[in-house]
Amino acid sequence: MKKEGIGIILALLVILSSFIVIAQDDAKVDKAYDCLENKVEGNCDSLTSVEDKAFVAMAIGRCVSELLEQGSNEECWPSSSCRIRDTALSVLALRRNNKNTDAAEDWLIQQTDTPKDLIWFLEIDTNEESQCTISYNEREYDITLKDDKKISGSAGTCLSIDSSGYWLRIDNSCYDKNFTISCDKEFITTLLYRKSTGSTIYVSSKTNSAPSEGRTEEKVNALCFGTGCEYEGSLWAVLALSETGHDVSSYLPYLIAMADENERYFPSAFLYIVTDYDDFFAEIIELQVNDYWKITDSPYHQFYDTALGLLSLQGLDAEQVSAAKAYLLEVQDEDGCWRNNVRDTAFILYAAWPKQVTPGGGGGDVDYCEDFDFYCVAPTECDSDDVKDLPCEGSLGKVCCTVPAKQETCAEKGGKICVGDEECSGSYIESSDSPGKCCSGTCAIPPEPEEPECEKEGYYCRDECYEDEESVDYDCESTDVCCQYKEPSKSYWWIWLLVILIVLVVLGILFKDRLRAFLFNLKNKMRRGKGPPTLPSQRRFPPSPPQQVMARPRMIIPRQQPPVRQPPARQPPAKPVGKTDRELEETLNKLKKMSK
Fold first, then answer.
1. Domain 13-112+232-249+256-366: which topology?
2. Which has the closest alpha carbon to 269: 259, 261, 3?
């Protein structure tokens, strides 16, 4: 019972602490909204750029009238130059504030161009050998699809058999042609494309099928925005037109094929919003570093990139979203804004913590898709007949569809959920049951990282060596350098001390007699100067009185002659071995051993 009680108390503490954290986060978000309000309240004219006013209108519904004044007849922005990106941002901002944007949408659609860097192919596929007929320009051409899927025959000047033998390459002068295909067996047709300078083949999102003797039609439908195709402007224009219910499928081939040449604009974020493709979701997840997004060579700040990443994952309960939000609240300015920047603060709030805005200019109440029990899905997930002209609250780039998008679990997509210390060998894909956790590859515990050569040798891998260190030629991971402590300069003072000691000992040996006499004389002088020593153990008594001595008779002993003694042979006196000599010998022996 005691253990159960402790467990309940701990659980309650965890729940209470989570509520406290949530309350603190909410307070920070409210502070950010207050900061943005204070910066633009009655002062929208101080915001000179269209993007500043557009993001503010998206976040808090302010600066709408000032944004309209900066446009040209509500068609394009700014009125002086009419740019694709600024006009697309204005459409998104005005749409959020329940303003009519038909004129601006029409202007965007009129700014389209045909990409010149894409090569297109027609693919026809059957399960068995088949005879097919292709019609265009009021003529028919017969071809054969063999068992190995290769094509034989001639299809006219607009279609030539590709070097691989599997597809028909469409001549760029025939991109405006309609191709009608019919086969004597059940078949499917689709269009493929690639960059003129690349080898990656992309498959069109639309595939047509027909029974035996049935018909399908294919036509190249690829567009971009701006003369010569402006990539960043095309990204925002597709997002704006998708938000307003337009079919954007014809713009996707250019954006997808040219994404690797324009990574600085974070294209996977835009493309995932309008397609829901797993490949783009996986790329967004992989690009997150240290709980935020900082795109290489991005023309914007990492707060802008992080807001764009959160916008693409808006509405998903993924770990990456929670981590990015926690990071933003951690680096928030004291006044509640971010980087004291209106654009970044407004974009962050709109992407991470969107709130229903009060439409600027009194647009009235807004009817949203969800109010009618419809579904906000990616444009590629809804047929045009099922699309409703209603905005999706808090789901940028989605369309209102009467039919829900198909939701697949991780298992249905052939993925796995990694647990514990396991890591995904592939990429993470979106699934209905595990947002941000479904692995498209295999899950395995990674091997222990191999110790760098530098650390194996007992040195240290650092970005740069400390002042008391020097670099050595051993390998480290990445660009680190291998460092070791500098060896102190060698000192030879002990050798000189040894030499001095040896000299002193030699002198002591050579002049030992004189030294002994000198020490003896010095010792006697010290004794005479001090007087006779007094033994500490000797007791002193008071003097005794004189005593009388009795005289005794004196005895006379007869004197005898002493015997004659022979003097002994004269020998040299034996040399006494004193304690000092023994100490000198021992010292010399020790010095000899030290010098070896």
1. Glycosyltransferase (1.50.10)
2. 259
